[in-house]
Design brief:
The protein is an alpha+beta fold and about 100 residues long. It is built from three helices and four strands; from the N terminus they run βββαβαα. The chain has helices at about 45-60, 70-80, 80-95; strands spanning about 5-20, 20-35, 40-45, 65. The protein is globular, with a radius of gyration of 15 Å.
Length: about 100
């Protein structure tokens, strides 16, 4: 898989599957992104399992940015160095 210290970002992804325009089911993944911008996808059984994994990552690896929103996506794509500083700032605050 990947060494813990190389992980920079982890978030949940939900995919909605449709059959003839009707929502049939949802599948969930935990997306893990490394310092080298490599992406790993972990399929999970449901949203609760994804949340449990992300909660664990946040507790054990405080330098990892956990969660996803438009601001984080934009920062990751447009200013990667600023994104990396965000994770180190979070890790320093978690120590205290």
């Amino acid at each position: 898989m990947v060494a813990n210290e190389k992980i920079v970002w982890a978030y949940q992804k939900r995919t909605i599957h449709y059959i003839k325009y009707f929502e049939a089911c949802s599948t969930y993944e935990v997306i893990i992104i490394t310092y080298e911008k490599k992406t790993f996808r972990v399929s999970v059984i449901d949203e609760q399992a994804a949340q449990n994994i992300l909660r664990y990552i946040g507790q054990v690896m405080p330098w990892v940015v956990v969660g996803c929103n438009n601001n984080l996506r934009r920062m990751y794509k447009q200013d990667y160095q600023k994104f990396l500083k965000l994770r180190f700032y979070r890790a320093e605050r978690a120590i205290y």
